[in-house]
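README, section 4: Worked example with a bound small molecule

Sections 1 through 3 covered apo chains. Here we extend the same pipeline to holo records, where the ligand is supplied as SMILES alongside the sequence. The molecule in this example is nicotinamide-adenine-dinucleotide. Nothing else about the input changes; the structure line simply encodes the ligand pose together with the chain.
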Amino acid sequence: MEKWLITGAAGFLGSHVTEKLISEGKKVIAVDNLSWGHKSFIEERKNAMDFYQVDIRDKDELDKIFEKHQPTHVIHLAALHFIPAAIKDPSLAIDINVRGTQNLLQSMREKAHVKSFWFASTGDVYAPDELPHHETKSVTSPFNIYGLTKFMCEQLINLESKNAPDTKFVIGRLFNLYGARETNPHIIPEILNQIRKQTGDVQLSLGSIWPKRDMVPVDQTADSIISTVKKLSEFQQNIFCMNYATGNVTSIEEMIKMISKILNRKIQINIDPAKVRGVERSHLQADVGALKAFLGKTPDPDLTIGLTKILRDEQFI
Ligand SMILES: NC(=O)c1ccc[n+]([C@@H]2O[C@H](COP(=O)([O-])OP(=O)(O)OC[C@H]3O[C@@H](n4cnc5c(N)ncnc54)[C@H](O)[C@@H]3O)[C@@H](O)[C@H]2O)c1
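The generated complex, written as C-alpha cells:
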C-alpha cells in the first residue's frame, strides 16, 4: 500500500499537499514541529492521517516514524523558510534546513524502502538575472543564507541519489507561492491585512514594490508535486531537478493595481524606507520548459484569477 510521509505538513504548502492526498484516499503520515505551521490547518483531517509533532533535527524520532510506517513516498517541505528569519539566525537556518534534510535522508535509507523523495528547493538558488532561470543552463549562486541552505540540501540529495539507486529523487525549485493559509508574512498577506483595516480608498505602507516575481498558486503547486511523484516510475533516471512556476513575472506594484481593479477601490502606495530590504532581487522568473515537458502543463499564470480567488476566500468580495 502507498504511504505518503509529508514533512512541514501543517505549513502553507504542506497543508495543501496533505489535503489533496487525503481527498484521494491516500494514507498520510504528517510530520511538523508546528514552529511556523498551524495545527488548525490540518485539524479537520486529523482522523485521516497520522500526525507527529516532531522536529526533523531529532533523528531518533524520525527513525521511529520511518520504522513504524514504512512510507513509500516522502515529500520534504519542512524548513526555516522566511528569508528575514534565516538572515537573522543563519545557524538555525543551517541546522533546520541542512541537518534536518540529512537526518531525513539517513532515516529513510536506514529504516525504510522509500520509492521517491520530493524536496522543496527554491528559485533563490539561482544567481540574480533578468532572464528566466533554467535548471541546468542558468548559474546557481545563492545570494542569501536561505538559498544557500537549500543549495546545500540539493548537493546532499545529489549525493544520496548515488547511494540509493532504487529511490527516485526530485529537487523541486519553487518560486513565489500564493493562496490560502500563508504562514509567513509575505507580501500578499501584508497587503490584505492593511486593506482589511481600512474602508473606502486605501493607503498602503510597504517596502520595495518594484521587484518582479513568478507568482504560483499554492493549490496548483501541490497538484503538480503529487502528479510528479506519481509519474516518476515511468522514467529510468533516479534524480530530477525542475522549476515549479508559471514562467510569467509581475511586479508588486502591478499586483496592487490588479487588486485595486478587482476590489474597485483606489489604492495609494507609500514607501516606508524601514520596510525596504537591504538586499533584494529585482527579478525572479522561471523557465518552465522542464515541468511542462514532464507533466504536460504548468500552474496557471493568470494572476487576476488567482487574486480574485484569494479575495473571495478572504471575503473581500
Ligand atoms: N512559500 C513559498 O513561496 C516557497 C518558495 C520557495 C520554496 N519554498 C519551500 O517550500 C517549503 C514549504 O514552504 P511553506 O511556504 O509552506 O513554508 P511554511 O513555513 O508554511 O512551512 C514549513 C513547515 O515546516 C515546519 N517546520 C519548520 N521547522 C521544522 C522542524 N525543525 N521540524 C519539523 N517541522 C518544521 C513549520 O512548522 C511549517 O509548518 C519550504 O521548504 C520552503 O522553503 C516555499
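What to look for in the output: The radius of gyration is 19 Å. The chain is about 40% helix and 20% strand.

Section 5 describes how to batch many such records.
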